[in-house]
Amino acid sequence: MSQERITTLLTEKRSYLPPEHGKSSAWICGQEEYDALCRRALDDPSDFWGARASQLIHWFKRWDKVLDADEQRHKYRWFTGAKLNASFNCIDRHLISGRRNKAALIWQGEDEMDVRCYTYQMLYTEVCRMAHALSSLHIRKGDHVALYMPMIPELVIAMLACARIGAIHTAIFSGYAEGGVRSRIHDSKARVVITADAAVRAGKFKPLKANLDPILEKCPSVAHVVVVRRAGLDNVTMQPNRDIWWHDLIDDFTLNADFPCEPMDANDTLFLLHTSGSTGKPTGIMHSTGGYLTYAAHTTQWCFDMRDDDVYWCTADMGWITGHTYGVYGPLALGATTMMFEGVPTWPKPDRYWRIVENFRVNILYTAPTVIRSLMRLGEAWAERYDLRSLRILGSVGEPINPEAWSWYHKNIGGGELPIVDTWWQTETGGAMISPMPYATKLKPGSAAKPLPGIDAAVMGSGGRDGEEDGGSGHLVIRKPWPGMMLGVFNDEEKYQSYFSRFGCYESGDGAQVDADGYFWILGRIDDSINVSGHRLSTAEIEAVLAACPEVGEAAVVPMPHRLKGEAIYAYVVTRDEVPWSEDLRKKLRDTVRRDIGALASPEYIQFVEAMPKTTSGKIIRRMLRKIAGDTYEDLGDTTALADPQVLETIIIGHQNILQGQHETATAAGDEPASEGKEAAPGA
Ligand code: WTA
């Protein structure tokens, strides 16, 4: 990916000026205003962030200090001494600001006739009832609640009910399978898990509750399971005294059952969300209440130029950070109308998104490159039939967007005029960090443009020097704290410190290059993560699952470029003595990964090898495996470190055989990771 991106960078010369129409009423209107904000944020960060926090958030008690920084331990505490509640900010205050009957959440179910619309008042009622219900299960401030739920309104209601009580929610993407769910529940020590009988996806049911039951046998912290009846399955096993239906639970609480908001410290944890860790164990990223919420509202307003009458649709699953920040907390804190879609873009036909845009007059659409690429492949005719004129701003997130996809999106969805905000950020950053401002920034297809005001992004060489390497590319770092920054890593201080250990400031794990205009071009992950259709997966986690199979002696997993998914998973496997290489074994290994982590982690290719390329000290040289998988083995770099150079030649021949036989070997599994997509990605 990075090589392709670097080539792109050198050849991409197009640029697009921000639209004139609508500029005068924009939050940031024009380059000069943006530049002035950057200067102000740099000169006096406390003043800048303090002002934003005052404008955007309702505080029960104001802060003593905007930022309390412990540079030695890289601990940054924002708005210390302040009190607030996220649920109050996302609901209650809008009830008295004239938005009581405004649509807060519009939900489109997979069936087109299945639509629910919650006004702010209705959301308030449901969130209060759920807060009472959780409280009746003895959930209190600081307790953990896991949400293993599909894209249904109850997920948003559950998040806001937790926030109201001060309980910490941990969402677990409903596409995860056994191992992924268990490790997350274990790590968070959740006392309650909220789930559904099944997730509905492309006409099929995925039985979440039944998947959960065996997992819970090994999760002693869980006292109760609350089950939403979504699919109406009639064979759901409910364990007495532990499991309870959502509708039975809230039935005890009437529609006027107010539940007061718990005043939280600005630095109390609002939620935990796991990313794939580099060791195979997921990393529980903790976000604060005050800093995170301020940053979510701030970036939603500026990056999307959010206005009061906008219908805003972030297509990401709410179980990911994008859904948290830009599906729930950001838009609701601003009192906006947020859309939620249960289905996938290609089912029953590849016009699903455009029907929704037309039906609900969506103004702002925020989606992922993987979705754009898959719809692009199916042709523009699907979009042409619909009236997309309500759209004002388009967004992209999750992985680098290739200029071809950018141009398709711009021309066919944006009529060649709409600004595309390509927002670069991560679970750890809480919100967008590098992104155009729709009415201020000149766009270059494939570049996320410039850091937001107050964000000090830079590219560094490996040696920690301030500067670049490899033809101008290097490690993307953030040198100053910002309010959306993670609070810590749950129960893993060492992991938290590892983000700062190399450069003394926040290291993103991404590679980037800055051009002469100061535009950032993100090259993708340079750590041990793979980004499949916008999902961040850990190579170590997949390797551990493969290595645990009795037939496997050793496994190494690397990314390979993929036309639709951006990156796909390529696994090298050494079998144990006497175990023959076979298609059956390939299938078994894929099934094991799918069962344990989820379909999204299933390898695109599995190459059996005699041995791994290793250094004389026995370390696998992944750099070489990555190049072979990416078909760029003409330049394998220095091979003198290899204990046995012969190994490499055999692996290259094996790789070529795999590519030749790709029609047979790229089995159905190849398409499945995207069908479990984070961004409700393609299913057909
Ligand atoms: C990648 C998702 C290029 C990047 C918000 C990052 C991107 C990882 C972009 C974080 C973008 C996200 N351009 N790459 N606009 N947005 N990424 O934690 O590699 O799920 O490190 O957060 O996605 O993934 P995460």
From TrEMBL:
Residues 99-488 form the AMP-dependent synthetase/ligase domain. Transmembrane segments: none annotated. Residues 541-619 form the AMP-binding enzyme C-terminal domain. The keyword Kinase does not apply. InterPro entries: Ac_CoA_lig, ACAS_N, AMP-bd_C, AMP-bd_C_sf, AMP-dep_synth/lig_dom, ANL_N_sf. Residues 34-90 form the Acetyl-coenzyme A synthetase N-terminal domain. Keywords: Acetylation, ATP-binding, Ligase, Nucleotide-binding. The keyword Protease does not apply. This is Acetate--CoA ligase. It comes from Desulfovibrio porci. The gene is acs.
